Amino acid sequence: MTRPFTRRSALAAIGLSLFATSAQAQDFPSRPITIMVGLAAGGITDITARLYAEAVSKITGQRVIVENKTGAGGGVAAAAVQNATPDGYTLLVFSGSQHATVPAAGNATYEPVKGFAPVTFLFNSVVVLTVPGDSPAKTMKELHELGRKKQGGLTFGTPGLGSPSHLLGAKILLADKVPFEAAHYRGGSPMMADLITGRVDFSWPTLSTSRSYLADGKLRALALDADKRWDRLPDVPTLDELGYGKQKVASWFALAAPAGTPPAVVGKLNEIFIKASQDPELRRRTEENGTPLATSTPQHMGKAMEEEWQTMQQLAKVLNLRPQ
Known about the structure:
Order of helices and strands: HEHEHEHEEHEHEHEHEHEHHH
Strand content: 15-25%
Largest sheet: 5 strands, mixed
Number of helices: 12
CATH architecture of the largest domain: 3-Layer(aba) Sandwich
CATH class of the largest domain: Alpha Beta
Structural class: alpha/beta
CATH superfamily of the largest domain: Bordetella uptake gene, domain 1
Strand order of the largest sheet: 2-1-3-10-4
């Protein structure tokens, strides 16, 4: 008699648990949501996270707080979210390549795949090769020739170890056998300050962080990592046009919750953020910034995270990446 009773009790407990989780998802969110960004304020990750936060707040009626928690190329924020309560109220916006590269380089206290519940892609990043306005280099070829002649090679500013612009620039320089030294910053804004003043020779910033400086001549664009030329920079060639298509790296940015977040809550978050991506103001601002929106199912994003982790472990060895 005991065994059937125990089995029925277990099934009842499971049923109550599923009911509670479903009810939790229906009521979600019932309080403010915090989105953590591992890079400094003013960069493309921060800017787009705040645009999404505004749109999500309008949909849910709840405050959505964006918190910049810098350090270790985004690793500090990633570790904080991984260790947060898995209830859907603490989320991470991150670069797919950087999220995988930091631990691949041996500098992380988080599990890039197992530590998180994928929610959805958010956007893609378009980056542009830029040099200070007074640089003698007028083309990518001239920049590389300068690097071969300069003692110590080119100084390369990046918004963080393993960021898409870092990996892209490094792969191109390695392919062309150009000596360089990378200077990693905690986001796009501090990097731009040194690029404008010539403390670094070049960088691959996003269109959003570089466009005003390009417009006033403080920076010069030499190439664009995009499927086609940008209408605001019609004379700047794409990497495909220059023959560097093989050096491209993943440029997607996404949203994740801590591992263990109930699937129903993840599904509700996915629904909310996809709806937010259709907000007219969000779409207008991201198009202006050169950051095309991209959403997905949690399953599709999870597969991309796994593939990126495998790819970046190999690339970290090729680039001889070390903890910063």
